[in-house]
Amino acid sequence: MDISLLKTFLEVSATGSFVAASERLFVTQSAVSLRIQRLETELGKPVFVRSKAGAELTAAGREFERYALSIIKIWEEARQQVAIPKGFTKSLSIGAQYSLWPRLGFRMIDRMREAMPELNIRAELGMPDRLTRLLVEGVVQMAFLYMPQLRPGLVATKVMNEELVLVAPWENPTLDLQGRYLFVDWGTEFVHKHSLLLPDLTNPGLTFSLGALTAQFIFKRNFAAYLPARYVRRYLDEGRLHLVSDAPRFPYPIWLVWREDIDKTVAEAAHKSLIKVTEFADAEQHSVMDRLELLNHPPKQGLEGGSEGHE
Questions:
Q1: Can you give the pTM of this predicted structure?
Q2: pLDDT tens digit sequence for 13-68
Q3: Quick check: is 304 in a domain?
Q4: What is the CATH number of the domain that holds 33?
Q5: Which range marks the domain in which residue 57 is found?
Q6: Which of 29, 51, 279, 298 has the greatest count of CB atoms below 10 A from its CB?
Q7: Quick one: which of 180, 296, 215 has its CA closest to 248?
């Protein structure tokens, strides 16, 4: 059995579309169609009902889906087990989106290595679609995501609420940002709340769906943007970015998605490590929130009638 046929089958099943599956797999639509045809030929039955609305699993397709998941899982386990270096007895692959690696993913790896020196670790970077596919296939056993896409065999644990804050690369920025604002698309809920609280900045003519990678763009271009407080803390400390006064902040949940069949020993160590890692991340985020609160509500000084000037 060609593993690529199974992966293509599962992607079409998940998306309900040959077109969407081709985009996620980075192949042409005709390649997806050919793979499904080959699979149906080998099985002797159709697995999808095609229509203008997309592709829907047949009864045979629904029955085959669980076997496809099992075959891919066994294949990935075997491939990873064979690749374990000498001196290691277990393996773990961790994925995360770009802005979730610094101060979260990296620290998770540090903790896991301390807890299990015999653990061979592999790290993967990707957007939610890619990481979800890797989780389903068993290539990745756990992943930090902003918007999890739950599939059979996956469970999600809420890690914490990220705080999205407005920052700019110049000193003393205000909400007067016409012509100097870059809209970062953090998802449907963020877009909705943003349009309600900041209607004048909703369509600035420049939109990125690059997450925290946007920081690299705005440094030398004098644009303000919403970025994760935890991620920008070091740039605030360095004076490369500055909080925008009176700007609303937006909560944005972080999730850790697990495979249900993850090794129990590894899962236990990961749960304990996650608690410590989250404590650090929360502390860093609170320090930024405290700065923002102080910026928006500075302490009153020299109150009339106070004790200043009296001996």
A1: 0.70
A2: 988 999 988 988 889 999 999 999 999 999 999 999 998 888 999 999 999 988 88
A3: no
A4: 1.10.10.10
A5: 1-83
A6: 29
A7: 296
